[in-house]
Amino acid sequence: MKPISLIQFLIEERRAGRVNAELSLLIEVVARACKRIAVATNKGALGGVLGNAGSDNVQGEAQKKLDVISNEILLEANAWGGHLAACASEEMEDPQPIPDMYPKGNHLLLFDPLDGSSNIDVNISVGTIFSVLRCPDGVTEPKMEHFLQPGTTQLAAGYVVYGPATLLVLSFGHGTHEFTLDREVGSFLLSRRDIRIPEETGEFAINMSNQRHWEAPMQRYIGELLAGKDGPRGKDFNMRWVASMVADVHRIVTRGGVFFYPLDAKIKAKGGKLRLMYEANPMALIIEQAGGAATTGRERILELQPTGLHQRVPVFLGSKQEVEVATRYHLMADGAQ
Ligand code: P6P
């Protein structure tokens, strides 16, 4: 049987009362914009879009040309649709209001337009991460504080991974589902419904080069994984690190695993490396809706009360059992202090 398209899926969800018309149209617009980003990334060197843009983003990171292009594609696609009150992006200091000439909607869209962009020039998978919040009633000119809602209030979260295939993974809080882009037709087709992440795993993802900077409980936990079957865990573990969150998370969504970007002495002052509002929160909803867990090593990510649009947090996510073990080690160490 031919898989259903994203649009058919969205109509089903609307009929089931799990999504309203405005939100489903917003997701269609975002998915269409990501198809354009896929075309741009797939051009590689032929598109004249590799390399640095010669500017820095709000994080002080050198922007790739494709960062800027992807950001513009998402802003332009969402300006006229009438579903949004404002957008926020990793690439922009402040929220972007919808231009006055267009109708405004009741949603706020946050995104990392091209996560992992440092991998573009070496042709490793990158992705777009997005999160949808409700715009507070009566707010027509959303300010930053209107975006600072806990991850549990997200109406939708998703990512698109631009890899050998272009895949959209999406959750409205009623399961996590995967769509594969059929390039010949130009449609996203449902490839996995109600994904379940195995609770146990033998695979972890972390940037080991930071090991000497980790907190003691992280040293202990990873040390036990590395000890393998002769150690306290009694089994061998494999390791992966793509350094593209969307690619690492998608591997976990596909076959299980656990991903860590813990606090370390280098980044402790900043609160972590990954951003809460448009990386950790959307990924946490997707992972939890697939039966996994997502914490900061101490707290459930989705329950954090945000304090800033570009706030950074530690991220432990993936197969529930391993996230729980690593989190327990941190809480025990805190309790011992
Ligand atoms: P590191 C990419 O820059 C990113 O924000 C995530 O996509 C990725 O998981 C992480 O940073 C990689 O960080 O320190 O290994 O380069």
From TrEMBL:
Pfam families in UniProt: FBPase, FBPase_C
Top-level division of the source organism's lineage: Bacteria
Keywords linked to the UniProt accession: Carbohydrate metabolism, Cytoplasm, Hydrolase, Magnesium, Metal-binding
CC cofactor note: Binds 2 magnesium ions per subunit.
The Fructose-1-6-bisphosphatase class I N-terminal domain, residue ranges: 6-191
Residues binding Mg(2+) 1: 90, 112, 114
Cofactor: Mg(2+)
Keyword hit for Metal-binding: yes
tRNA processing keyword on record: no
Any one GO MF annotation of this record: fructose 1,6-bisphosphate 1-phosphatase activity
Sequence ranges assigned to domain Fructose-1-6-bisphosphatase class 1 C-terminal in this UniProt record: 197-329
Enzyme Commission number, as recorded: 3.1.3.11
Pathway named in the protein's UniProt entry: Carbohydrate biosynthesis
Complex and partners: Homotetramer.
Protein name, as recorded: Fructose-1,6-bisphosphatase class 1
Lineage: Bacteria, Pseudomonadati, Pseudomonadota, Gammaproteobacteria, Lysobacterales
